[in-house]
Each structure stands twice: as structure tokens, then as C-alpha cells.
């Protein structure tokens, strides 16, 4: 009813993190994941998704900025029914670096 | 080998899951499912008058029973009408399975008649959702929907079923077993031991109970812990009833409309034990200033709640009932005479207004008189507004699941259909719905359903001819610029009720209002009880927006 009086969102740092997410492969998975980030205004810098093994699973790679909300985002991701595992890598992970060639 | 249509399979799976009542409204895209449902001898279908009503009826059934309940709607507008009830279930963690019809698979994405992407629309408001692409998938999806709705932190699940999938034939060996909740997470022994050390070392501990205690069925464990460790206990709006209000350790509801002393007790706490609550802004006020001196123990089945708003010193992921049971033997029995004396001193120093009012033609007096006429077996539902807060403050709740209110979403229109749902699930109880004239008109069409089912639901209408809570805000925080919160017309609610076939009583004109009220409450069947309430009565005390809980005004 009454307007919330909230603290302003704190700025993210510039350190990047790569999230590696194993998910069930079906048409709705991406929308579940993207929704989670979009609604919390948590910017995804990069996103990559490919099916793995027999096509029943996919692996999603996300490039995000490390921000104090990241831990909360990971916990929210882990709650999604189609998310099987979330692994965190530092910015040195080369999955997005190797893609750079396609963007120049 | 069994063979049947997708629609029939859904009905059989629902029957096997134990579903006995479904609220809904049919339409083109769900007609195969309704056709199959018409053959069910086990399931009673309740024809709502608006899909939002059907959604809240399912919620009412789920809130009193703790078991996932089902609503049906057709595609397009039927499905979008369910959205508010689904979002409400999500925010209050209510287990519900909504099944919607959808246009045939081949037409999805073509803007076909009554096509909406209800799957996409409900991604952010469901715990999980499904768009079923073959009848065979139903064998997995229907049990999964129930399992997800009831496991861990409960929530709503939507299953969207295209019409051709409902009509498709499917053969299978055997029915899948009915879904059961997933195993609870292993308890965090180290965390529990650390929590016990903190409680044992505390001088001014407070127990803070949330809706999770209701969902986990853990109120007995919570009361036992409080009694052993001498913990003054506060409850959120959602947890009212988990400790009886007249228990000597109860300090009532915390937050925006708490008794002053409750927020003052929390201010002095040195350890706060939060059980199945989520530090909602209505409960804690300005987060940085909530319990400034307290170290926090937070127990929750949902790991993402730990450290979300307040960094806990000990965060324990687990079922609150199991954790409390493991915690109790590790805490020292401690009567804490000096802390409890201090709590009582704060309580005596800040008496609450509602404790002494008895005139049934005043807001608090009405709530107290209704309570006096009923026992603890009654179920109390509300709509949203001032009346909701007055009931939360003044009604003596003594039992979990006695109290049904829209907490997280705060949805006007919740009350009547939720009360209908409660009465459908537990017809032996008296169900009272306190409503406001604004809220009542948001789902008043369900009076027709109520009359048809002839349920024991009493609607107590606290009529201030305004959107009272809005009127209050404008008076207090918008320079008394009252706008769009007072009604110019005044509908005759008694005649409206009677037009629907619901009897009514008007306490305004009753020579003996107390007697008339008691008689209305004790006569079986539905009734509208109308009472005019002074528009200038505000909900106090109140924490103004952005303030700390200790900076209350009024009351
Ligand atoms: C569906 C919906 N729309 C708007 C609101 C905002 N709102 C909160 S309380 C309120 C007024 C409620 O009026 P009424 O039901 O008459 O109760 P009262 O406050 O007068 O007791 C409004 C408009 C809401 N909570 N829900």
C-alpha cells in the first residue's frame, strides 16, 4: 500500500564472473533463467547455451559482473526446478574469451 | 495396458492424488478436460463466477489443509484471470496447482482466438510451470506439479495443456504413484549447535516466527522451544496463531501495525531467532535499524532467504520443525525472570487500545465480539485494508491455519473466495470473512457460488464507504489531500446479498447488535453481517514509510 522506501541499488564492481549452469533442455528453460536476472536488473554481459550429452541437458554459460547480489542470484538459480547445478568460475575462464573472435 | 485421452488421464491422476474439490470455470480450450471431469465420481467441481475467485477458493482449501489444491481455467482471459491468485499464492508460499486449457499445439504462436502465453506470463509468479506438449508427458508432469507445489517451501505450479493434448490418446502400463513431498534437507548439526550456544549465552533473546512455521506444522515445536528457553515470541502476519496470543510468552505481531511494546522489545533484543520468516519490509521497517543490537539466528527451508535482507550470524538451512526439534535439547532451560520482567514492564507501559473495546459497532469491538461468540475451531479470513489490520491486531488467534489472509501480495478480493475454499475443505467449521466495502466488491460475484454451495461462511462487512487504508495514507502522508478514496455512491449490500440468495443482518439498525451478531454467527449457512464503521478511525499504531519500527505514530 505505502510506497517502499528503499536503499538505492549499490553499484557493481568491475570484476567479472563466469557461471556454468547445467539445466534440463526444454524450450522454457532460458526464459526461466533470463527472467530471474532481468527482473532484478542484474545485467548479463554474455550468454551462451548448447545442448550436452544426448540432448536431454543443456549447459548455459553466463558472464556477469561480481556484485554483492551474486550470491543471492546463485541461490535463486539453484531454486529453479530445471537447474541441476551451478558452478562459479573467475573471469580467467576462457569460454567467452574464445568467442571474442566472432564479435570483431 | 491402459488407454485413454489426455483429459481423462489428468482426471484420473488428480483423483489418485487425493483431489476431491476443484474450483474453476470452463471455456473452449478446456472443454475436453471438463468433459472428462463430468465423469468423475470422486471430484466435486465448484463453478466459480470469476477465475480469480476459483484461484482463491483453491488457496482457501490449501491454506486450511496444507495440501496442494487445484483450480481450472480456460485459455486466454480465463488464464489471465487466474494470474492474481497465482501471484498471491507465490508470495504467501501456498501449494496450488492451476491447470489451464491452451489453444492446440499447432496454433500456439499464431495469435489464435483466446491464445495468450500464460506459460511465459507466469514464469515469475509460479514456483514452476509447464506447457505440456503430449498426452504422454502428463504421466510425469501432473505428479511433478504436485511434488513441486508441496516440497520444501510450498508454492503454486501452473500446467498449461493444449486442447489437442487433452484429446490425444495415450497408452501406458500403469499410473505413476501419487506425488509425495521430497525428502527434507539434512539438518545442519554445526549450525544448530552454534544457535544453541547463542541462545544459551543470550540475555535478551526473542523468537520471531513466520509463515514457515505454519507450513512446516511446527507450532508445537516453536512453543516448546520458547517455553524451555524463556523466549518472548513475536509472530509475523502470516504466523498469527502459531503461538496462542494469550500465551504468557507471546508478544503478538511485530512490524508496521504492531503493539508499540512489541517493537520496543525487539529493539532491546540481543539475540533474534528467526524461524520461517523472511524479514519482510512490513515486518521489520527500516532494515538497517531492525534489532540493532541483536545477533541473528535464521532458520529456513529456502536457502535463498538466508542472508537475503539481514546477514545472519548463524543461517540454518532446513525444515523448521526438524531444526527446532534438534535445537530444543541443546538449549538450557531458563526462565529468564529479569528479561521477562522487562518485557512485561514494556507491555504494561504501552497498553493497546483494542484490548478493552467491546461495543460491536466499533471496529475493534466488532472484532472482539465476533471472537467472543466463536471458539478456536472457527476459521477467520480477511480481505485487505484497515479491517485486515484491525483483525490481525485484535482477534485472539490460538491455532495455526485458523487465520487466512493475503500477506505478501495484499490482494483485495481475497477474502470471500478464500473463505469459500476454507468451508469447502472443512465444512464442519464456521468460517468468518472480515471484509471492507472496497475489497468486497472485488469478488462479490462469488456470493452466487456461496449461495449455491450453501456453505457456513459469514461475511462481516466493515463498511466505511471508502478505501479506508488509502484514505488513511492520504490523511497522514499526503497532506490530507483525499483523492479517489471515498465512494460517492453507497450500494445497499444487504439487498445485493439477498439478490444473490445470501441472507443478511444489519447491526446498524439491530436493537440488540450483540445478540443479532451472535445469532447470525451461530445459524448454519451463509450470511452477510453489515456494520457501518467510522471512516475517521485509522489503524494505529503505525510505522510511517521509511521509518524504523520504534518510530511509531498513534495508538
Ligand atoms: C487488488 C488491489 N487493489 C488495490 C489495492 C490497494 N489498497 C490497499 S487497501 C485498499 C483499500 C481497501 O478498502 P476496503 O476493502 O474498503 O478496506 P478498509 O481499508 O476500508 O478497511 C486499497 C485500494 C490492493 N491492496 N489490492
From TrEMBL, chain A:
Gene Ontology BP terms: isoleucine biosynthetic process; L-valine biosynthetic process
Pathway of action: Amino-acid biosynthesis; L-isoleucine biosynthesis; L-isoleucine from 2-oxobutanoate: step 1/4; Amino-acid biosynthesis; L-valine biosynthesis; L-valine from pyruvate: step 1/4
InterPro entries attached to this UniProt entry: Acetalactate_synth_ssu, ACT-like_dom_sf, ACT_dom, AHAS_ACT, AHAS_small-like_ACT
Reactions it catalyzes: 2 pyruvate + H(+) = (2S)-2-acetolactate + CO2
Enzyme Commission number: 2.2.1.6
UniProt entry tagged with the keyword Transport: no
Taxonomic superkingdom: Bacteria
Example of a GO cellular component annotation carried by this entry: cytosol
GO MF annotation terms: acetolactate synthase activity; acetolactate synthase regulator activity
UniProt keyword 4Fe-4S present: no
Alphabetically ordered keywords of this record: Amino-acid biosynthesis, Branched-chain amino acid biosynthesis, Transferase
Pfam families from the UniProt entry: ACT_AHAS_ss
Top EC group: transferase
Residue span, ACT domain: 18-91
Subunit note: Dimer of large and small chains.
Family of this protein: Belongs to the acetolactate synthase small subunit family.
Name of this chain's protein: acetolactate synthase
Gene: ilvN
Automatic annotation (TrEMBL), chain B:
Chain's gene name: ilvB
Superkingdom of the organism of origin: Bacteria
InterPro entries per UniProt: Acetolactate_synth_lsu, AHAS_TPP, DHS-like_NAD/FAD-binding_dom, THDP-binding, Thiamin_PyroP_enz_cen_dom, Thiamin_PyroP_enz_TPP-bd_dom, TPP-bd_CS, TPP_enz
Biological source species: Pseudothauera nasutitermitis
Residues annotated as domain Thiamine pyrophosphate enzyme N-terminal TPP-binding: 4-120
Gene Ontology terms: cellular component: acetolactate synthase complex
Signal peptide residue numbers: none
UniProt keyword annotations, A-Z: Amino-acid biosynthesis, Branched-chain amino acid biosynthesis, FAD, Flavoprotein, Magnesium, Metal-binding, Thiamine pyrophosphate, Transferase
One Pfam family matching this protein: TPP_enzyme_M
Similarity comment text for this entry: Belongs to the TPP enzyme family.
Name of the featured protein: Acetolactate synthase
GO molecular function terms noted in the UniProt entry: acetolactate synthase activity; flavin adenine dinucleotide binding; magnesium ion binding; thiamine pyrophosphate binding
NCBIfam families the record matches: acolac_lg (TIGR00118), PRK08155.1 (NF006016)
Amino acid at each position: 500500500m505505502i510506497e517502499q522506501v528503499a536503499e538505492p541499488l549499490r553499484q557493481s564492481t568491475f570484476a567479472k564472473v563466469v557461471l556454468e549452469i547445467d539445466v534440463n533442455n526444454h524450450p522454457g528453460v532460458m526464459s526461466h533463467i533470463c527472467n530471474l536476472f532481468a527482473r532484478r536488473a542484474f545485467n548479463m554481459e554474455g550468454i551462451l547455451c548448447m545442448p550436452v550429452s544426448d540432448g536431454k541437458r543443456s549447459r548455459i554459460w553466463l558472464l556477469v559482473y561480481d556484485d554483492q547480489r551474486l550470491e543471492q542470484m546463485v541461490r535463486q538459480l539453484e531454486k529453479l526446478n530445471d537447474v541441476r547445478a551451478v558452478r562459479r568460475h573467475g573471469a580467467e575462464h576462457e569460454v567467452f574469451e574464445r568467442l571474442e573472435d566472432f564479435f570483431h | 495396458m491402459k488407454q485413454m485421452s489426455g483429459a481423462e488421464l489428468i482426471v484420473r491422476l488428480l483423483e489418485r492424488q487425493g483431489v476431491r474439490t476443484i474450483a474453476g470455470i470452463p471455456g473452449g480450450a478446456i472443454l475436453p478436460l471438463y468433459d472428462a471431469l463430468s465423469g468423475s465420481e470422486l471430484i466435486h467441481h465448484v463453478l466459480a463466477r470469476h477465475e480469480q475467485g476459483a484461484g482463491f477458493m483453491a488457496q482457501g482449501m490449501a491454506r486450511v489443509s496444507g495440501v496442494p489444491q487445484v483450480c481450472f481455467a480456460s485459455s486466454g482471459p480465463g488464464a489471465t484471470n487466474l494470474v492474481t491468485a497465482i501471484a498471491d499464492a507465490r508470495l504467501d508460499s501456498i501449494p496450488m496447482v492451476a491447470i489451464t486449457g491452451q489453444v492446440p499445439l499447432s496454433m500456439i504462436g499464431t495469435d489464435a482466438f483466446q491464445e495468450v502465453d500464460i506459460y511465459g506470463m507466469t514464469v515469475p509468479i509460479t514456483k514452476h510451470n509447464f506447457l505440456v506438449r503430449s498426452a504422454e508427458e502428463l504421466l510425469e508432469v501432473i505428479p511433478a506439479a504436485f511434488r513441486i507445489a508441496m516440497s520444501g517451501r510450498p508454492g503454486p505450479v501452473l500446467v498449461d495443456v493444449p486442447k489437442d493434448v487433452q484429446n490425444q490418446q495415450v497408452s501406458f502400463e500403469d499410473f505413476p504413484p501419487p506425488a509425495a513431498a521430497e525428502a527434507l534437507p539434512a539438518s545442519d548439526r554445526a549450525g544448530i549447535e552454534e544457535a544453541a550456544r547463542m541462545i544459551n549465552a543470550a540475555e535478551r533473546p526473542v523468537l520471531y516466527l513466520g509463515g514457515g512455521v505454519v507450513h512446516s506444522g511446527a507450532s508445537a515445536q516453536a512453543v516448546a522451544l520458547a517455553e524451555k528457553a524463556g523466549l518472548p515470541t513475536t509472530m509475523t502476519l502470516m504466523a498469527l496463531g502459531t503461538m496462542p496470543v494469550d500465551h504468557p510468552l507471546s508478544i503478538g505481531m511485530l512490524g508496521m501495525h504492531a503493539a508499540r511494546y512489541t517493537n520496543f522489545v525487539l529493539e532491546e533484543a540481543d539475540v533474534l531467532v528467526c524461524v520461517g520468516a523472511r524479514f519482510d519490509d512490513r515486518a521489520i521497517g527500516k532494515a538497517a535499524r531492525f534489532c540493532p543490537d541483536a545477533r541473528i539466528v535464521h532458520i529456513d527451508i529456502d536457502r535463498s532467504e538466508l542472508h537475503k535482507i539481514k546477514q545472519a550470524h548463524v543461517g540454518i538451512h532446513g525444515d523448521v520443525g526438524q531444526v527446532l526439534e534438534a535445537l530444543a535439547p541443546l538449549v538450557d532451560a531458563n526462565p529468564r525472570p529479569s528479561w521477562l520482567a522487562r518485557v512485561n514492564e514494556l507491555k504494561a507501559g504501552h497498553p493497546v487500545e483494542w484490548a478493552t473495546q467491546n461495543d460491536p459497532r466499533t471496529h475493534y469491538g466488532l472484532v472482539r465480539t465476533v471472537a467472543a461468540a466463536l471458539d478456536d475451531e472457527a476459521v477467520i479470513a480477511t480481505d485487505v485494508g484497515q479491517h485486515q489490520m484491525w483483525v490481525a491486531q485484535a482477534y485472539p488467534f490460538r491455532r495455526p491455519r485458523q487465520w487466512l489472509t493475503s500477506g505478501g501480495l495484499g490482494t483485495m478480493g481475497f477474502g470471500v473466495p478464500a473463505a469459500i475454499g476454507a468451508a469447502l475443505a472443512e465444512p464442519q467449521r464456521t468460517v468468518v470473512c472480515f471484509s471492507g466495502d472496497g475489497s468486497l466488491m472485488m469478488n462479490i460475484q462469488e456470493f452466487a457460488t456461496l449461495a449455491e454451495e450453501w456453505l457456513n461462511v459469514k461475511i462481516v462487512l466493515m463498511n466505511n464507504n471508502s478505501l479506508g487504508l488509502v484514505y488513511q495514507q492520504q490523511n497522514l502522508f499526503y497532506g490530507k489531500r483525499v483523492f479517489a478514496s471515498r465512494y460517492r455512491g453507497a450500494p445497499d449490500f444487504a439487498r445485493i446479498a439477498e439478490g444473490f440468495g445470501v441472507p443478511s443482518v444489519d447491526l446498524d439498525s439491530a436493537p440488540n447488535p450483540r445478540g443479532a451478531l451472535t445469532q447470525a454467527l451461530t445459524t448454519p449457512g451463509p450470511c452477510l453481517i453489515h456494520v457501518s464503521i467510522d471512516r475517521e478511525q485509522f489503524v494505529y499504531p503505525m510505522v510511517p514509510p521509511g521509518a524504523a519500527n520504534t518510530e511509531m505514530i498513534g495508538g
